[in-house]
Amino acid sequence: MQLLSNFLKHKKIDSELIELIDTLMLACKEIALQLREGELAGVLGVSDNTNIQGETQKKLDIIANEVLKKVLLDNPIVRGVASEEEDFPVFGNSDGRFLVTFDPLDGSSNIDINVSVGTIFSILEVPAGVHENSVDLFLQPGVQQLAAGYVLYGPSAVLSLTTGDGVNMFTLAHTGDFLLTHEDVTIPADTSEFAINMSNQRFWEPGMRNYIDDLLAGSEGSRGRNFNMRWVASMVAEVHRILTRGGIFTYPWDSREPQKPGKLRLMYEGNPMSMLIEQAGGKSSTCYSRIMEIQPDAIHQRVSVALGSRNEVDTLLEYHQANKND
Ligand SMILES: O=P(O)(O)OC[C@H]1O[C@](O)(COP(=O)(O)O)[C@@H](O)[C@@H]1O
Ligand SMILES: [Mg+2]
Ligand SMILES: [Mg+2]
Known about the structure:
Layout lengths: L3 H7 L4 H23 L8 E5 L5 E3 H15 L4 E6 L6 E2 L6 E9 L10 E9 L21 E7 L3 E6 L4 E6 L5 E5 L10 E3 L10 H12 L10 E2 L5 H11 L2 E4 L12 E2 H14 L3 E3 L16 E2 L1 E4 L1 H15 L2
Parallel strand pairs: 3-5, 11-12, 11-13
Antiparallel strand pairs: 1-2, 3-4, 5-6, 6-7, 7-8, 8-9, 9-10, 13-17, 14-16, 15-17
Helix pairs in contact: 1-2, 2-3, 4-7
The protein binds 1,6-di-O-phosphono-beta-D-fructofuranose and magnesium ion (2 copies).
């Protein structure tokens, strides 16, 4: 089985980008170790802090964030990082070429119950000739990402990575190496499995309500077949399932906080996951437009997300279109 860096060299990926991905994996291996120790290392439970989005930080949110920040900023090819758990971007070498945004620990409500969590990352390039450090450097649409991926910390630790030429998966071996385990991952265009937090049903838009009602009606409804439902409450795990066997995942806009487009964050979750899904032949949308074409205007911007098997996402968009035109 091929080593991650050998695979990327073989694919003729830019050597500095390979170096950056290796650096990211160094941090993820450290996070994987801390997670594995769990209670033994005293890392479970909540901290006394709240992040800029008003969420209570888990101890492991903070640890994972610190590990990623330190390891990345120690490498002079990194100009700056932006994290879900940092109020503002943090800058390193002013000549650095890369920007990295990350959700250090996704699905962190699962930590204390020992269920899968993950790290999501997105790599951007500093626009040519820009020397001033500012948040604006990061505010690039998802189509500009050089690479994106996640590490799922589940029964095994798995990296799913795209550098803009398909999606490949690598499993962390006991030697500390990530080894190629799935090449050219492709999402089936059709699916009978959906993922949504059903407890928010009464807050959804009519398009989403009608769509889910028809899935639940199964073979007796207009879809004419039964659908299965999954909800891990960890986006990394949901996307991993979809990359592995297809499906649709959505965290849509809802009326609880109508001024926010959704729960998930564009720069740390929406864009990197959309790049992976599209590179595997799937589709990703806000329910109205392509996520990767959104011009961000704030680093912690939220976005509504619907992604997965292409034909099923198209069907969901039709329900939204139908209700928009009513
Ligand atoms: O608690 P809910 O409403 O089920 O939301 C679950 C969603 O929130 C998230 O946990 C948000 O990510 P964080 O844990 O990084 O805040 C997603 O991974 C997941 O899809
Ligand atoms: Mg998250
Ligand atoms: Mg998080």
